[in-house]
Amino acid sequence: MTNKVTAFAPATCGNVCVGYDILGLCYSGAGDKVTVQKIAKPEVIIESIEGEDSLSCDPKKNTAGIVLLELIKEQKLSFGFSISIEKGISLGSGMGGSAASAVAALLAANSFLETPLSKSTLLEYSLKGEELASGHAHADNVAPCLYGGLVLLSNGEVVELPFPKFIQILLIHPHLTVNTKDARKVLKSEIKMKDYVKQSENLAGFITGLYKNDPGLIKKSFEDVLVEPLRSKLTKGFSHCQELAKAEGVLGYALSGSGPSQIALCESHEQADNINKIVTSYYESEGIKVDTFIGSINSEGAKLL
């Protein structure tokens, strides 16, 4: 067996508008690659990081490193790992970059174990990286990254939800940064009962719309009344772009995670392409570069290359 393995982990959308910390979706397109090599000592060495200069090579301060340190400790491994990280997801982009690095590192390292661990166990290890990145061990990015598709986190279980094949997902990444820890600070500790009821109605309607393959119900339900109104101010132009997209009949338009990236659920590739042009034109008029991806949901998730 080779002593060097590379894994790819895709970008993800946490929250998926109506499911704060409990819904996650896996994108097609962008992602991180992590190459892991087995070494003699039970330690983790980060050899290189490409694509993101600000990331630490201290394994205790890097999501890919800290999850492997946890793996070595908990599994009582007699060997360790050296890793090289190729970032395809920008920090603070709302695309699950910290989750992707952690998941890719774990998936590659798992192939060196005599008895490889299950996805559910790898998920538990990956939460150590999310805790480092955001101060909160939430799984709405790592779970879809590992499992692919759209997932619901329910009472410690990962529930894989259906996702209509006709929906085309537009991922928009304006070159802005929103720190996840800062985005959590703007949230309120208490909410109004009427808002709680409305959010519950929308979450239930969205999931029901998915099962019924009902675009009308999905469209009516894809609205966050609790978190997005507070976080929208952190992403320049988001509210304006959301209104532009809704005017074009998009099924749904929301922040991806805490932003600044944005997700549009479209009824066709043509509609996605149209929304892409409209939003890109706006950001370019503001002097802000934009990366975009259009495609179906990624049902595969992280994989070995």
Description:
Helices cover 37% and strands 25% of the residues. It is α+β, with helices and mostly antiparallel strands and 305 residues long. It folds into two domains: 4-158, Ribosomal Protein S5, domain 2 (2-Layer Sandwich); 162-295, Alpha-Beta Plaits (2-Layer Sandwich), CATH 3.30.70. The strands form two sheets. Strands 1, 2, 3, 4, 5, 6 and 11 form a seven-stranded mixed β-sheet that branches. It has a four-stranded antiparallel β-sheet with strand order 8-9-7-10, with helices on one face. Strand 1 and strand 2 (23-39) form a beta hairpin. The protein is globular.
Mean pLDDT: 94
Q: Outline the low-pLDDT stretches.
A: none
CATH architecture of the largest domain: 2-Layer Sandwich
The separation of the N and C termini measures 15 Å
Q: Which geometry do the CA atoms define?
A: globular
Order of helices and strands: EEEHEHHHEEEHHHHHEEHEE
Distinct helical segment count:
10
* Fraction of residues in H or I helices: 25-40%
- Compute the number of strand runs: 11
Whole-number count of domains: 2
For the CA atoms, what is the radius of gyration?
Answer: 19 Å
Report on the biggest sheet.
7 strands, mixed
CATH-defined fold name of the largest domain = Ribosomal Protein S5, domain 2
List the quaternary state of the chains: single chain
Structural class: alpha+beta
Q: Identify the CATH class of the largest domain.
A: Alpha Beta
